UniProtKB/TrEMBL annotation:
<dbReference type="GO" id="GO:0006096">
    <property type="term" value="P:glycolytic process"/>
</dbReference>
<keyword id="KW-0413">Isomerase</keyword>
<dbReference type="InterPro" id="IPR022896">
    <property type="entry name" value="TrioseP_Isoase_bac/euk"/>
</dbReference>
<dbReference type="InterPro" id="IPR000652">
    <property type="entry name" value="Triosephosphate_isomerase"/>
</dbReference>
<dbReference type="GO" id="GO:0019563">
    <property type="term" value="P:glycerol catabolic process"/>
</dbReference>
<dbReference type="InterPro" id="IPR035990">
    <property type="entry name" value="TIM_sf"/>
</dbReference>
<dbReference type="GO" id="GO:0005829">
    <property type="term" value="C:cytosol"/>
</dbReference>
<comment type="similarity">
    <text>Belongs to the triosephosphate isomerase family.</text>
</comment>
<protein>
    <recommendedName>
        <fullName>triose-phosphate isomerase</fullName>
        <ecNumber>5.3.1.1</ecNumber>
    </recommendedName>
</protein>
<comment type="subunit">
    <text>Homodimer.</text>
</comment>
<dbReference type="InterPro" id="IPR013785">
    <property type="entry name" value="Aldolase_TIM"/>
</dbReference>
<dbReference type="GO" id="GO:0046166">
    <property type="term" value="P:glyceraldehyde-3-phosphate biosynthetic process"/>
</dbReference>
<keyword id="KW-0324">Glycolysis</keyword>
<dbReference type="Pfam" id="PF00121">
    <property type="entry name" value="TIM"/>
</dbReference>
<keyword id="KW-0312">Gluconeogenesis</keyword>
<comment type="pathway">
    <text>Carbohydrate biosynthesis; gluconeogenesis.</text>
</comment>
<dbReference type="InterPro" id="IPR020861">
    <property type="entry name" value="Triosephosphate_isomerase_AS"/>
</dbReference>
């Protein structure tokens, strides 16, 4: 657990990834040594269960979805890990009834109406003339416990901006849904040294909307998926050091801008070309609390192996 929530860490976040990673490692190292001596108050690192999400995106048909669910049910994802799979909307109901507990189901999106000029409009109902959309209200009605929001494919292909994603998160929380909210930078933004600025802006929109929305809350039910756009579906995975540095920065931001309690309780997943071969190395990092998996989640055996990397994580952070 890192404890060193100092302004210098926050300042360092905009530094190039390698030096930031080094800074984080130094801080982690010194925090661990101090913890061993019992001298330091531990103020960071997640405390929640490892969580692995499978984002099936717009893939599959009746036969392949049935086969995938059967294979997941027959497999072994390990213990002490939350597993959430997100089929396309048409197959959500099937997954809800056929997927064995404790594996859970997520939708890949939920509608929120926010274009009304009336700023006091509190989204009490999402029913209406929104052709093709599915609302958080409907997900709640169907008993869908999770929703993925703000995936970069929706941001880039469908034009969802930070505010819209923030409103969707706040509204989904209002309906009691647990949320995986995706954040992450493009390659251009990373190369320009803007990674953390981009992510903090995305997080700010979520925090503001949750604050603004009556009966919405962050709690421990908002999972953040850090998904660098350049690593999604490209086979180009971010290094453990790059991911750890960003996750530590996110956790620090939560501490400074939401609360220390939320910063500890929030699970931060990494997503971007995670597979059965690289998951264990990534899982060793203290602030990687799970994965959001695209391509490899369509193969039950590979996905189960990724879920089982939870054991490596707990061991690495001394929670085995
Ligand atoms: C994703 O789309 O959320 C994702 C991480 O995809 P992939 O694992 O295929 O890179």
């Amino acid at each position: 657990m890192i404890g060193l929530a100092s302004p210098s860490l926050t300042r360092g976040i905009c530094a190039p990834a390698r030096s930031l990673a080094a800074l984080t490692r130094r801080r982690l190292g010194s925090a661990r040594n101090a913890r061993d001596r019992g001298a330091l108050q531990i103020v960071s690192e997640g405390t929640g269960r490892f969580i692995v999400g499978g984002n099936w995106k717009c893939n599959g048909d009746r036969a392949s979805v049935t086969a995938l669910i059967e294979a997941l049910n027959g497999g072994d994802v390990g213990d002490n890990v939350d597993v959430v799979v997100a089929p396309p909307f048409l197959y959500v109901d099937q997954a809800l009834s056929e997927l064995k507990s404790p594996m859970q189901v997520a939708a890949q999106n939920a509608w929120v109406e926010y274009t009304l000029e009336d700023e006091t409009h509190h989204y009490d109902s999402d029913s209406g003339a929104f052709t093709g959309e599915v609302s958080a209200e409907m997900l709640e009605d169907m008993g869908v416990p999770w929703v993925i929001l703000g995936h970069s494919e929706r941001r880039t292909l469908l034009g969802e901006d930070d505010t819209m994603v923030g409103k969707k998160v706040a509204h989904a929380r209002f309906h009691g849904l647990s949320v995986i909210v995706c954040v992450g930078e493009s390659l251009e933004q990373r190369e320009a040294g803007a990674t953390m600025d981009v992510i903090f802006k995305q997080l700010r929109a979520v925090a503001d909307e949750i604050d603004d929305r009556e009966h919405s809350s962050w709690g421990s039910q908002v999972v953040i998926a850090y998904e660098p756009i350049w690593a999604i579906g490209t086979g180009k995975v971010a290094t453990p050091e790059q991911v750890q540095a960003v996750h530590a920065g996110i956790r620090q931001w939560l501490k400074d801008n939401v609360s220390e309690e939320v910063s500890k309780a929030t699970r931060i997943q990494y997503g971007g070309s995670v597979n059965e071969g690289n998951c264990e190395t990534l899982a060793r990092e203290s602030d990687i609390d799970g994965f959001l998996v695209g391509g490899a989640s369509l193969d039950a055996t590979k996905f189960a192996q990724i879920c089982k990397s939870s054991a490596v994580h707990y061991k690495a952070v001394g929670r085995a």
